[in-house]
Structure formats: C-alpha cells, structure tokens
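Fill in residues.
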C-alpha cells in the first residue's frame, strides 16, 4: 500500500502516572464551587432578565459553557457533554420567540430528551428532532408560553423537572406539573425550589402535583457554596489512607445540596466531620467497623461511584441500588465501574440499576503492577478512581476530563503529597 498523498492521524492519549510515597494525608484545600447551584443561578438571572452578581461562580467546563451560551447572539448552540445545560436551555428557549438549535457531543446525542420535549409540546411549543427521535440535536420554534397543566415522568432525570420549574413563574398561567412514576435525584428538585425561594418564588406540593403560579423573581447578589460532590473524593481518600486530616474550605453544614449526606455515609467508614470557620475538617478516626453496606442512591446518584470504589478497596460487601440514571450519564457508569474495578481483583455483580460485591476482593496481589484505568471521558470515573493511588501506583487515561466539574483537581491532589508524571 502506497502512503503517497495519504493522510495519517495519530491520536495521542494523555495519561497521568500517580503515586504517593506514604499513606498519610494532611492538608488544606479550597473546594470548587457547586456547578449545580451555579447553573441554576445563571438560568434565574437569564429568565428574570435582571442582572445580579453571582460570587464564587463555578469555573467548571459545564458552567463556562452555559455562561457563554447565555451571552451569545447565535441561534445554534453546542452544549458539548453538559447535560444540565442541554435540559435547562430546552425549556428556556422554548419560551423565547425565535428558532433555536441545540446540539452536543456524540454521547449527548444518545442521552434522552424526549420526556422534556413532550412536556413542552403539551404547552404548545413546536420542537423537531434533527437526527434521532427522542434525542438531541433538536430544533425549537420558541414562543411565548402560556403555561398550565402538564404531566411528566420523574424517573429519567430530575433536570427535566427543574428546567420547567425555572421558567414557570414567568408564564401567565404558571405551571401545574403532575409528576408520574418515581422521582430520581429529588434533592436536585429541592435545590431548584430552594434557590427559587431565595429569589422570591413560592411553590407548593399537592400530592403528586408541583405548582408554581405566575410571580416575579426578586433578584439579589448571591454567593455559591462549595461542591459536596467534589468533597466526596477527599472522603474516599481519607478512608483509604492510614491516617488523614484534611480541611475542606467552602463547605456549608446546612447545605442545600443533597450530596452533603456524604459526611454521614463516611462516618460509618471511620471518617469524622467537624465544621470549622469557613468549611469542614475531615479526619480518619478509626477503621470501618461495618460488615456490610446497603444504600439506595436514587436521590444521590453522583455519590455511587465514590462509595463503590471505596467499599471495594476496603473489601466490604455492599449492595448499591437506585442507579438506573447512571446508564445515561457521560458513560454507562455501572458497566464502566465493573470493567475498571475488575483490574483491582474486584468482581462486581451489576444489573441495570444495582452494583453489588459479595465475598472477598483480591486487590493485594496486584500491588506489584501499575494499574491503568480507562475513564470513558467521564469526570467522575477519573475522580473516583484516582484515590486508589494511595494504595499503589496507578495510571489514569484522559485526566483532563476533570475540568467538567473540578478544574483544579490535579493541583489539589499534589498539595496532599501525590506525585504526578505526565505521559503521552
């Protein structure tokens, strides 16, 4: 075969080799701000059409993408892999006269949007699928919505419901949302309602109906708290260490984030949380005493990977349920966890919504080798697997994907004494 006039492309995969000389962790970190709160505040500001300051706004890729789109004068928007941006923009643009196209990454084109689109169609919006029915990209023929009664399933994504709630106060008839089936990630709906309440919007639950009447947002400056999801990886690291004492600045005790429950979950694994001025201090005070761990993660799916990896390394049998939303995240997180933890000698049993481990892992026999982990272009795979470097040297593919939620992660882990070699 002649190579004349041929074009050859070599894709270089970045990898980080990560290791630590000891198993002692001590330090202080300023955690990234919550992108979930940041994104909702950006939407409230855009929907209210009145400017206010958002202090400590997240600098994650997802939030920067949303901020750029809301400032843009284009009518075609590429959200990349940002699911929240996709869902929030769909309702926002449906209520904004004009023709709008939203697209995203290849993975985004396989993340369902049909439930939200159908609800908006009930309100009178014309929306077309440009490739595959039920999935992005979509074209929206925006109009001034009247509001009224709609039905929507809460079993796929709470972001569909939050998306509708955010525009509800601006509609002449408000919204009476009948919620069908179970609701996943309910704390994120509560977060949306809580933030709306802080901006003057009243809402009420009546049985399975969520009602928001026409009102006006009352704007005010707002400071975003630190991200409890990001804190979870330091809890994981502290648990796997021989000794740990970490101060995490920016966390609030009375947080509006459902993932703040991580403090209670890891208390069972020997980690004590003490709230201090400006944040929280986490310390390893004992080895885990539990013999088995069972938990329904329907409300807090972003913590599932953290717990699955931690418990596997502790060799504690577990059963994690309520994980069906993990199938449609940046990757199929259930399958990805099974694949990667098998490299540590942990054989997980999985279904479409559960991850379980029975019996013993065989992690010790792998200590002589560097473990290479794939991360599936998923920030939470990187963040949940990297703490294993305190147990042995590991390699992580595509490490820069952490910028989706935690851009400063690699600087922070080096502050705690880890060594990183960049291999391409």
């Amino acid at each position: 075969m002649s190579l004349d006039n041929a074009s050859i492309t070599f894709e270089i995969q970045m990898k980080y080799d990560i290791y630590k000389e000891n198993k002692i962790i001590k330090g202080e970190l300023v955690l990234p701000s919550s992108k979930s709160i940041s994104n909702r505040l950006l939407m409230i500001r855009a929907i209210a059409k009145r400017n206010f300051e958002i202090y400590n706004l997240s600098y994650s890729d997802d939030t920067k993408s949303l901020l750029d789109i809301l400032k843009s004068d284009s009518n075609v928007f590429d959200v990349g892999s940002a699911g929240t941006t996709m869902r929030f923009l769909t309702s926002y643009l449906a209520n904004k006269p004009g023709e709008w196209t939203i697209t995203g990454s290849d993975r985004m084109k396989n993340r369902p949007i049909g439930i939200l689109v159908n609800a908006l169609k009930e309100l009178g919006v014309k929306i077309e699928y440009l490739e595959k029915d039920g999935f992005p990209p979509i074209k929206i023929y925006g109009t001034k919505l009247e509001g009224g009664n709609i039905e929507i399933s809460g079993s796929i994504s709470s972001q569909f419901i939050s998306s509708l709630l955010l525009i509800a106060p601006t509609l002449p008839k408000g919204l009476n949302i009948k919620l069908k089936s179970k609701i996943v990630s309910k704390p994120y709906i509560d977060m949306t309602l809580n933030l709306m309440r802080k901006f003057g919007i009243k809402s009420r639950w009546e049985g399975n109906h969520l009602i928001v009447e026409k009102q006006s947002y009352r704007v005010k400056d707002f400071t975003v708290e630190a991200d409890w999801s990001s804190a979870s990886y330091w809890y994981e690291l502290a648990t796997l260490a021989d000794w740990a004492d970490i101060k995490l600045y920016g966390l609030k005790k009375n947080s509006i984030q459902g993932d703040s429950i991580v403090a209670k979950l890891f208390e069972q694994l020997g980690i004590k949380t003490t709230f201090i001025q400006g944040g929280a201090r986490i310390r390893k005070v004992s080895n885990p005493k539990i013999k088995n761990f069972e938990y329904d993660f329907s409300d807090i799916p972003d913590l599932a990977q953290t717990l699955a990896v931690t418990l596997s390394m502790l060799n504690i049998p577990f059963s994690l349920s309520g994980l069906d939303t993990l199938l449609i995240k940046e990757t199929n997180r259930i399958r990805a966890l099974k694949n990667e933890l098998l490299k540590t000698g942990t054989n997980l049993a999985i279904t479409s919504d559960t991850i379980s481990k029975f019996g013993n892992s065989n992690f010790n026999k792998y200590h002589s080798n560097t473990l290479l982990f794939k991360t599936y272009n998923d920030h939470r795979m990187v963040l949940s697997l990297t703490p294993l470097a305190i147990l042995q040297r590991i390699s992580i593919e595509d490490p820069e994907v952490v910028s989706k939620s935690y851009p400063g992660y690699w600087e922070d882990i080096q502050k705690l004494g880890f060594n990183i070699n960049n291999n391409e």
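The chain has two domains: 15-33+226-423, 35-222.
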